[in-house]
Automatic annotation (TrEMBL):
It is an enzyme of class 3 (hydrolase). It comes from Lyngbya aestuarii BL J. The keyword Nuclease applies. CDD domains: Cas6_III-like. This is CRISPR-associated endoribonuclease Cas6. Keywords: Antiviral defense, Endonuclease, Hydrolase, Nuclease.
Amino acid sequence: MKRSFKKNTSLSWSADTELVGLVLALRPTGADLLYPQYTIGLHAWFLDQVRQTSPDLSAYLHDGESEKPFTISALEGALKMSGKHLQLQPEQTYFWSITALSQPVVQWLAEWVQCLPTQVELRNAPLTIQSCQIALAPTTYRQLLDAPIPKPAQVNLSFVSPTSFRRKGHHFPLPLPTNLFHSYLRRWNYFSNLPVEQESFLDWVDESVIIRRHQIASTKVAAGKRGMVTGFTGAIELGLSKKSSLASPQNQQLFYALGRFAPYCGTGHKTTFGLGQTRYQWQIEATEKISTHSQQLGERIAELAEQFTTQRKRTGGTRTQKIAETWATILARREDGESLQAIAVDLEMPYETVKTYAKLARRALRQPD
């Protein structure tokens, strides 16, 4: 999707702002190569920017509770396949989005944008920052809640990067209303200071929210630091049943507020690694084209993880699955030609541990070390 910027957009907002979304325009310095899971590098670079100027906030983002007060996107723009890597195009401008869901992160961004670094540093692929603009208007949770009901009374959401939920230890790649609004409400309750009783609202969603139309496709991609994700992209139109439109005004108001909240918080899990990017409109043409190799890598990780899990199933428990996914991620990326050192850095694991896991994984498949 082609983006355009308003030249006079001001990179400032009021001190009470709780949510904001930014988009950076980036230009490669050459025809550099990216590894398929390069969003790990974007994630690490962003956290390092926070660390350099706000150690306390950095510690919270690294070590805080599971709900993270920010999201990042993958790069939006043409990436060509080059062997097992993605190749940046020197003449191409890429767009990278960052959103903040809490006042401390919003305040940090307000200072950061006044003195931006010159480059986003990815492994062997620096990107020059050409501009930074506001993509999602500065607002507060109260303003989202108090906004009038849209006309027509519906919520259109587009999922422009693979989106998935966790359910009973597995990925669940369907945008059921209860899954969507559980995802949004969990973050709303954590950050808004306007908490809502979760169970009763989700019961109401299950009874009242209907899917009027959808255009959804599924894909399997490598994402985050370990493993793969089966997710969906596409668009969905949601409305309320006739019965519900005559009752529960508070739930109705929250329903529309959470729809407006979705682009800020993203949908599902791994939103700090580029997944679950969401827009508040029906926009099928905006859905990201997932590279063939990223899908292949995800499928290879899934294949290996299943084999390792089967071999280790006698041990049982979630630890078996986690170890299997870690082994699978390391071996699949090693098969792709990545160095063990680079994999160790991305996974934030000691090099010797990664080396040992690679050997154990090969032996489990009876491959030569």
